[in-house]
Design goal:
The structure holds two protein chains of two kinds. Chain A is of the alpha+beta class. Helices cover 23% and strands 34% of the residues of chain A. Chain A is built from eight helices and 20 strands. The two termini of chain B are 42 Å apart. The chains are: A alpha+beta, B mainly alpha.
């Protein structure tokens, strides 16, 4: 069990800097997810923590000890790779016991530990197979088993579920969560899938272009995004983000359409300020088919034309036309809508976001 | 006749043609070998007969008995030749493999300056025919005084084999996913242990095949060996074949018998390593 601290951590490849001095404190037993689009530096950061990439600047501490220049084996961590990286020439048993064997333990000491981990992950009947004889989900579990056996201070996961199909991914997500509850280690989990990050993590770190955009609990990053980028990245379908200007206490969109300025932001904007208005699909719904969380007065009603619908069973995503752009809304208790139909929509402005258009930062206090 | 029946008959015809084709190809490949084995048991009259005698009439082990009978009784110093061949081939293969593994691994895993130029340079050395080197090599060796020594031939064969082993082994290391060595390091291995515990066993089939090729090249090489060897000190089996030629006659039967003796170790070795040559070990390492 250990804390992990990144202090002004930098990664450079030659002249190219890919991670620009990031700071992060991971508490003991915390589950942290690093998310961000491809190339944001999340995997590089994880590989620096693992010791697979040298640190170019700053400090990396595990359990309070600076480990910048220590090789991976001296850091006492375990890593689950995207490709699983199981040793193909060894059986599941040998794969799981490999780290113990390298550590110089005797076969009779290794066996019970491997059995124990196999039991935890329901792998007992597969112990004598080779990785090539296993399905994707089973390989994934073996990779986790190999990590557990080491009893590491920190678990690192590098997009562990991205090679699995959707159903299995959901299943394995639950298993990882259970596993964390059971082994109670510090976990650093890299993913580009925000659903994984939201469901698993205690805190989420959103990265972009080698910088940390925001660190917060799943609720934090979802409800209080600090920037336009985070707002657009977290949430599926993504938040509607449209450019507008503040005129006479109203938001005027590029084509002249208007919305009332959300009450919360009245004192925070100046007339003529260029902003980006953000509204989650959950807060834009056909009247009578959604729940608003604030006062009735905060709900703005407006007739919109439906462009397209995506029925998901329990709800329907409704794409409608407003302010010269396409807006996504979420319709609960759906009824059949036909494209071209015009009906009243509710904008729940108590949940709306405003960002400064230039800096992209939130205008909320 | 419906379409299905037609397709089925087509399939049968195709597979039959395939088998016949394979049989013909194998015949072309195997017949000379078989002929050598046969000829080693037959008297020269029968070997040289025109028209050829297809079915052997008179088989005997005379050539083999004579070969081992010692000089003066139609024999040649075969034990010495065999020993020389073995020492030279095994040593040069081992050295070529060691260098090939180090080089192949470096080319597969590391980035360094002028990597592709160095690689290309190594490959270009293969374009020089070995025989073209024999004269310069002869001069250098005679100045150094290493003509007619094991050391001389081993050095020449290592130089001949290294580019090839590097190239082959490089390809096999490339197929071993990098993640595996990284996983091994996280599991507690040093870089060196990760190599021997994980990457080496997985590239094993490739290294074995590089080894076989290097061994066979050295084992069968004649042109350089005939220039750089003089006596029983260093003459190898292929050069030993020349002992069967004299001013006016060639003892074809003896030559064939020696050829058989040469073929056997190579054949045995290939059979032993054969199962390691079957690749596919890496399947299942990563997403499959």
């Amino acid at each position: 069990m250990a804390t992990v601290s990144l202090e002004k951590l930098v990664k450079r490849y030659g002249a190219l800097e890919v991670v620009h001095g990031i700071d992060l404190e991971v508490a003991d037993r915390e589950f942290i997810a690093l998310v961000g689009p491809s190339g944001c530096g999340k995997s590089t950061t994880l590989r620096m923590i693992a010791g697979l990439e040298p640190v170019s600047g700053g400090n990396l501490k595990i359990g309070g000890r600076i480990v910048n220049d220590l090789p991976p084996r001296a850091r006492n961590l375990a890593m689950v790779f995207q490709s699983y990286a199981l040793y193909p020439h060894m059986t599941v048993r040998e794969n799981m016991g490999f780290s113990l064997k390298i550590a110089g333990q005797k076969p009779e000491e290794i066996a019970p530990q491997v059995e124990e981990a196999a039991k935890t992950l329901d792998l007992t009947h597969l112990l004598d197979r080779r990785p090539s004889q296993l399905s994707g989900g089973q390989r994934q579990r073996v990779a986790m088993g190999r990590a557990i056996v080491r009893n590491p201070d920190v678990f690192l996961f590098d997009e562990p579920l991205s090679n699995l199909d959707a159903k299995l991914r959901t299943q394995m997500r639950v298993e990882i969560k259970k596993l964390h509850a059971k082994v109670q280690s510090t976990v650093i989990y890299v993913t580009h899938d925000q659903v994984e990050a939201m469901t698993l993590a205690d805190r989420i770190v959103i990265m972009r272009d080698g910088y940390i955009e925001q660190v917060g609990t799943p609720e934090d990053v979802f409800q209080r995004p600090q920037s336009k980028f985070v707002a657009g990245f977290i949430g599926s379908p993504p938040m509607n983000l449209k450019d507008a200007e503040v005129v006479d206490g109203q938001l005027v969109f590029t084509n002249g359409d208007r919305l009332p300025l959300p009450a919360r932001f009245k004192d925070r904007v100046t007339a003529g300020q260029k902003v980006t208005f953000g509204l989650r699909p959950d807060d834009l719904y056909p009247a009578g088919h959604g729940i608003h969380s604030g006062e009735d007065a905060d709900v703005h009603k407006q007739d919109l034309r439906v462009i397209l619908t995506e029925p998901l069973g329990n709800e329907t995503l409704v794409f409608s036309d407003f302010a010269g752009a396409e807006w996504v809304g979420r319709m609960l208790n759906p009824r059949r809508l036909s494209p071209g139909e015009t009906l009243p929509f509710c904008f729940d402005l108590s949940q709306a976001h405003l960002f400064d258009r230039e800096s992209g930062r939130t205008l909320r206090g | 006749m419906n379409e299905n029946a037609k397709a089925r008959i087509n399939g049968i015809l195709l597979s039959t043609a395939h088998k016949i084709g394979l049989f013909l190809a194998m015949t072309v490949i195997c017949l000379p070998g078989l002929w050598i084995v046969l000829a080693s048991f037959r008297p020269t009259v029968e070997i040289m007969a025109k028209p050829p005698v297809w079915i052997p009439q008179d088989l005997s082990f005379d050539a083999y008995i004579a070969m081992f009978s010692g000089v003066g009784q139609g024999g040649i110093p075969i034990i010495e030749y065999f020993r020389n061949s073995l020492i030279i081939s095994v040593t040069s293969t081992a050295i070529a493999l060691a260098i090939g593994m180090a080089g192949g691994y470096a080319f597969a895993r590391f980035r360094f300056k002028a990597k592709s130029s160095i690689f290309l340079g190594l490959m270009l050395t293969r374009t020089v025919p070995g025989i073209a080197l024999s004269l310069p090599l002869f001069f250098v060796y005679s100045k150094l005084g290493i003509i007619d020594t094991h050391f001389g031939l081993i050095t020449a064969y290592v130089a001949l084999n290294v580019p090839f082993t590097i190239w082959l082994i490089d390809g096999f290391f490339r197929q071993v996913p990098k993640d595996l060595a990284e996983a091994a390091q996280i599991d507690g291995c040093t870089r060196w242990q990760a190599f021997w515990q994980v990457e080496f066993p997985l590239a094993g089939p490739g290294i074995a095949s590089a080894g076989i090729f290097a061994f066979l090249t050295s084992w069968n090489e004649f042109a350089l060996a005939s220039q750089l060897t003089r006596s029983v000190n260093s003459k190898t089996l292929p050069v030993g074949l020349l002992d069967y030629t004299s001013e006016f006659t060639i003892d074809w039967r003896g030559m064939c018998a020696l050829a058989v003796i040469m073929i056997i170790p190579a054949l045995v070795l290939t059979f032993i390593v054969q199962k390691h040559l079957v690749s596919g070990l890496t399947s299942g390492a990563v997403k499959g």
